[in-house]
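Fill in residues.
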């Protein structure tokens, strides 16, 4: 039997572009509890700066990975990542994404 909570649509994470110039795009992402970005592919290298400590679930073609992020501890990924990012916490999760053109 399917859990009805699993079939509910997730709330959407809210992106706010703070800088968009010839060299970078800086976006703040705010995730409500259970919120998601939706499936997307990164066309540029990027760095993520967590503003919250907590757990994000990363859905990709290879399955789901839970990532523990710590406020202020950044990480970098290359272009080409394709995934859906989900807030696994019962509180709002925020990070800043810096993309490099």
């Amino acid at each position: 039997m399917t859990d009805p909570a699993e079939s509910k649509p997730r709330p959407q994470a809210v992106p706010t572009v703070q800088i968009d110039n010839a060299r970078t795009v800086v976006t703040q992402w705010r995730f409500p509890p259970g919120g998601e970005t939706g499936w997307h592919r990164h066309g540029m290298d990027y760095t993520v700066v967590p503003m919250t400590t907590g757990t994000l679930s990363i859905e990709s073609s290879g399955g789901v990975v839970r990532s523990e992020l710590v406020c202020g501890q950044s990480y970098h990924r290359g272009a080409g990542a394709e995934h859906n990012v989900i807030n696994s916490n019962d509180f709002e999760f925020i990070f800043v994404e810096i993309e490099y053109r």
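The beta strands are 14-20, 24-31, 40-41, 45-50, 54-60, 63-69, 75-77, 82-87, 93-100.
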